[in-house]
Write a structure and sequence with these properties.
Chain A: This is Tetratricopeptide repeat protein 29. The structure holds two protein chains of two kinds. By secondary structure, chain A is mainly alpha-helical. Chain A has 20 helices and no strands. Chain A has a domain of 41 residues. By secondary structure, chain B is mainly alpha-helical. Chain B has a three-stranded antiparallel β-sheet with strand order 1-2-3. The longest helix of chain B has 32 residues. The chains are: A mainly alpha, B mainly alpha.
Amino acid sequence: GGCGVCFPISQPVLPMAQSLLKAVLVICTYLVRWRTEYRFKGLKSLFLIPSNRNSYKKNICIDMLRQGYHESFSELFALIQKWNALREAAGPGSAIWQQKSLEEQPDKLHQLCHFLTRAEAAQRAGHYEEVYDNQLYLAYYCFSDPEDKWLSNYFYEQCFNTAQLIKIDGGKREAQAHANMGLISEEQGHVMKAAEHYEVFYQLTEGSTWKDETGHTYNSLACEHLWRIYTLLADKMLENKEHDQAIKTLIKALKMAKEGGDKMMEGEAAYYLSLAYHFAGEQQTALSILNTAVKIFTALCDSAGLGRAYAAIAKILESQGKAAETMKYLGEFMKVAENTHLSQSLVDACVLLGNIYNERGKYSEALEYFSQASEAAKALNNLPLVDETKTYCGIAKAHKLMVAFNSHIEAEDPVSLKYLLAWKENRSDMCTDPLTVGKTLVMKHISAVLSSMVKSFFL
Amino acid sequence: PRPAPLPEVSPWQRGGALAGSRRCELCGAAARLRCRRCRLTYYCDVDHQTADWKYIIDLASSTAQRFVLDGKHEEAIPAALHALRFSTEVYGSNSVQLVPAYLLLAEASTGAGCLLQASKYLSQAQWIVLRTPDCSVAVQQKLHRSLGLFCAAEENFEQALYHLANDIYLTSSMFGLKSIETSGGYFHMANIFFHQNKMDIANSLYAEVTDIWHAFLVKSLRAQEQIINSRPEMSPLTGDEAVGKASLTEAQQAEAIRVLNAVLDIREQAPKQQPRETARVLHTLAMLYYLGMDLPKAGEVGTKAFNLVKGLPQQESLEAIGHLLKLINSTPSCTK
């Protein structure tokens, strides 16, 4: 049924004056709050603005919307939601749980507002390169802190999407965007994705003159990224014993390194490729490539590279039983080291040679080389290296001593026995004068060490 | 809401000429009490009277709203006043439940040209909201929408944009960024920028409105198709009912048709034509008409969209429109 206009609207029961006073007080309170809290200038309104202590986030959003920047509003709103979702997913106890939410960081919100609105204005005008530049600013400058990585990555991705629309700059920003996406993929462990991006970066920058702020051309950077990523890919393949694939990939890596023009890269690439051939059993190819590496490292005076390369050569030749060739190479190594005044390389070369003589039982020669290594290490002032070389000397000396020891035992005659006993007592040189009195205590210590060495030899 | 003083119901006289046959207005059981004011309506107890009044409020409100949607603002005012009076009786004069009634009155008054009256109603509404500490976000949003529209009618554009910005912010918080509820706010904002001749902003906003509806309708269409495909003997009419969650109320549908047609007009009359945008609106409208079972209109609009897209260099949406047209043509038309 319907009750029509039968009855009046009920009136409040308070006396008139009291209610009026109350109303006036409330109005005054709200007016005061309005002036202090709401910063909207020049607003003449019949209505009171509701002053429920807007958060900074709300004020910024409303500011953006009022001016018509609705895409910026949407993007900011979505980013805040995304942060909250990331935090929820990470759960309590994670690093992000302790962090301040994006909506409670006014300076970040301010930066986002500033650059997002500029990007939106540029987008409406169709100036996509400006959109890109604003997004890049956010990605590179505003959010460079590690805890803002997700924001930075987000804007790099936005740059990438925008770059596809830019026709005005010949593809420079598009190339840049591929490089950045490649770096992000690489950071996240998506090696194949990174390779794809770097390849496009390479294609887009072929024949261009674009340079970065350090003066390197984009194309050379592309070569460097590709060299690095192909090497990473090949690493995985070698782990899975896919030797042929690894070799193919490392050949690509070497090509890139050559094109990039950085000799160090080229040397490294050659070295890795030779290792791959070695693992695949193709020793000759490995050796020939190692020779190339050696040439490059020599020209660069890079002792680390030289050390690795020659060690690899020595190992391969030794495994092939080519003793004479090994010595020849190592002799070359020593000459190179002396000529280029690379003390570290001299140490490396001497140690390699000493090891070979040691293994062959030529302990005097071994000791000679190890001593030389020790001297070179001292010249470098590298204390750990000095200690290492001294240990090698000790090993050679012990082996030498053992030879004499064994020969005396095998002789089984009284003179030999006398020598042995004298040695045991005062650690004199048993090859010369058994009656020389030495420093017995120290000698006893050395005796203990040597005994264990001898024991291990027999084991 | 605070219990308001109700007019008494009096036990109606037994033994009168009509004794023994009265039924409760709400539940139909034997009635013991009669409304004292109009003396025509019977209830079994006071709770049923209150519930009936709530039903009356609803009825008055929706009647007023229908008039407003049809553009008959003056005719809406009596119904809206009714809603207000009943609400005051049931909830008290300071209750936040009165706000929808005030907003409806304001909208009707604005449309009828009584801006002063509208501003009074809006003041009342705002007053109540300010004094309600735990006022819901939904009510605040509706208030901002009304304030925005009123300021726009007054040509106070800066203020209107401020209120509509609040509206959009609050609806986004409640329903999500790209929800159909938010599209209303964007549409009204677009109209203001259009009025101010800021065409690039207006176009961007109109495009957003179109996109939101386009996405929603595509989803609805797909949902409906899935239901039909799993039960092929059902006609699209019953299938529409079964969709449920994603379907529109009648008011929302009417609003959508109005909004999208307005956007279409703007697109078609723009000095610099953007055929892709126009086609998108046409496609969206076609989907809307189809889901609302207005097949002739759907076909007309859909064909227009199809022909427009055919003349474009890139025709990504052609397949979708073609599919829709097939649906329209294969659906037997039935009167609702």
